[in-house]
Amino acid sequence: MNPPEDGDAGGGSGDYSGWLSLRELDTELGRDKGASFRTFKRLLPRLVEGRDFVVLDHRQYGALAAQLHAAGRLYRSSVNPVLLAPAAAALVRESLSEAQ
Hints:
The chain is mainly alpha-helical and about 100 residues long. The protein has one domain. The chain contains 4 helices and 3 strands, in the order E-H-H-E-H-E-H. The protein has a 3-stranded antiparallel sheet with strand order 1-3-2. Helix 2 (about 35-45) crosses helix 4 (about 85-100). The chain is globular. It starts with 19 loop residues before the first strand and ends with a helix. The relative contact order is 0.24.
């Protein structure tokens, strides 16, 4: 699983402005660690990698992941962090809100 290539959503350049990490969603919604991840996994059949989310493989995107870690956007334990596009983040948010 790789970030989108140039010209795709997210730009392939590592510019994920507006994309949210699972930690950011958990924090925003006041949920425990892992709530957004579990919801993301449940919604995965409806999502398209590269359009709705990216998985930053630590072997290839370690520098970007390090920047996100330094900015406090990821859990310390994140090895291959997931970023969600705004529409996918809204879907996870909606699903978590309905579960309350």
